[in-house]
Design brief:
Elements lengths: L2 E5 L4 H12 L3 E8 L14 H15 L3 E5 L1 H17 L6 H20 L4 E3 L4 E8 L2 E8 L16 H6 E2 L7 H10 L21 H5 L8 E5 L14 H4 L11 E6 L22 E7 L4 E6 L7 E8 L3 E3 L11 E7 L7 E8 L2 E11 L6 E6 L2 E7 L2
Parallel strand pairs: 1-2, 1-4, 2-3, 4-7, 8-11
Antiparallel strand pairs: 5-6, 6-18, 8-9, 10-11, 12-16, 13-18, 14-15, 14-17, 15-16, 17-18
Amino acid sequence: MKTVVVGMSGGVDSSVAAYLLKQQGYEVIGLFMKNWDDSSVTLTSNCTWEDDLLFAEMVSKKIGIPLHTVDLSDQYRKRVVEYMFAEYERGRTPNPDVLCNREIKFDIFIDEAVKLGAEFVATGHYCRKEIIEINNQPVYRLFAGKDTNKDQSYFLCQLSQHQLSRALFPIGELLKPEVRKIADEQGLATATRKDSQGICFVGKVDLPTFLQQKLKAQKGDIIDIPEIYYQNIKASDELTEISKAYSYTRYDGNVIADHRGAHFYTIGQRKGLNIGGTGKPMYVIAIDVVENVVYVGCGDEHPGLYRKGLFITNDEIHWIRNDIEMKIDESREYLIRIRYRQPLQKGTLVKKPEGLYIVFEKPQRGIAPGQFAAWYNGEELIGSGVIS
């Protein structure tokens, strides 16, 4: 009998994952990870880790599996939260959920599972895994979940072949209503519990408040860039030009308000600007953390919101499938997304000596440095990288 450790989060998805694995004949062990214990930065309506542990205990008892707990809060702070602070300080937009999966759930968590004698780890992610053989070696493929509304493959875009070799995704073939139905039929306490929101393991936070643990608030200017600014910019077919973000100076627009720190904002952001009387919504189109300036544009179709391409440096490119890694001067058409829940977009990947360029069929809104771009071949997630 093979042993699998299931990451029990206190939610319905991991609960049903554990139940299904036991039904399939695995020896199942539950493991609850305590990764965050500072409630001062979470919104009061959000459940605490103590609540999550209580639900995990109830479910484990109901389905008849042991539950262990492990405190990984130090590792989580060092490997995920500190990364967040560093990225925001640089004026970039990180995705802590992607980092949490790469650094915690499928790294340190695997080490903990091995200590418990497990061969596999399992989570409640909505995604699927397949194994093929190439040159007599196993190759692990990662696919989107069957439930297109809940597909979480994007969050796993940085996983390696080694990590996938240990991973199981028991609910990847199910729809969310089916998962809740199973939980209800089995009398699991999590059957009607709401899904968690916010930062992985931290919860729903007010981001500026969260970041002020390390980043100081500092008053600065919000500058409106008029659409006429872009009339003097010549179109180019050069990859280096297509992939560049627009850059501004404070003399390119007018000061219309002030902010409390440029590093608290991200490209494409609308809420939190506190700008009224413009007739149309205002959006962040660029930030300058050195000069502490936030640049904004008026309206959903403002040119500064859109880019045709992006660039990823060589050291930030990650291939889930190493066997199909692109060679220099090779180009391929893939489907791409730059954020969770974004519909897949058609685009062309071009590999050059300096890195990887992605050129979209249609200009994309809100491309921000620090985000992860992930590329798919149909439903299969092939690779990802951090946008420069």
